[in-house]
């Protein structure tokens, strides 16, 4: 099984999130199946979770792995419970804002 870091590096290589020229969010324009060579072209928004930074995605994955236990997250991260709560609150706010 691949480590989380390797998976994140592969996603990062394959899926840039921001425009290198203006730093705006990118959209997906083409999807391609290597098996049957089907192509889908258009303008598609990236999924909400894919728009998170690598660090935010790691936090979400750890949160799920720890069954939502902020206490266990704080222990793993080496920070206080209120710090983890603040990180989660900021992430919730960002997800709510981006979902609009």
- Overall spatial form: elongated
Number of strands: 2
Assembly state (oligomeric): single chain
Total helical segments: 4
- Residue windows where pLDDT falls under 50 for at least 5 positions: none
The biggest beta sheet reads: 2 strands, antiparallel
> Cα distance, first to last residue?
35 Å
Structural class: mainly alpha
- Proportion of strand residues: 5-15%
Instruction: Average the pLDDT over all residues and give the rounded result.
Output: 86
Tell me roughly what share of residues is in helical segments.
40-55%
Report the radius of gyration as a whole number of Å: 16 Å
Strand order of the largest sheet: 1-2
**SSE order in H/E notation?**
HEEHHH
3D structure, described in words:
The protein has helices at residues 4-14, 54-65, 70-77, 81-98, and strands at residues 28-32, 39-44. By secondary structure, it is mainly α. The chain has a two-stranded antiparallel ribbon with strand order 1-2. Strand 1 and strand 2 form a beta hairpin. The relative contact order is 0.10. The mean pLDDT is 86.
Key features?
100 residues; mainly alpha; two-stranded antiparallel sheet; 4 helices; 11% strand
Short note summarizing the structure:
By secondary structure, the protein is mostly helical. The chain is built from four helices and two strands, in the order αββααα. It starts with a helix and ends with a helix.
SSE map:
Elements: H1 4-14, E1 28-32, E2 39-44, H2 54-65, H3 70-77, H4 81-98
Antiparallel strand pairs: 1-2
Helix pairs in contact: 3-4
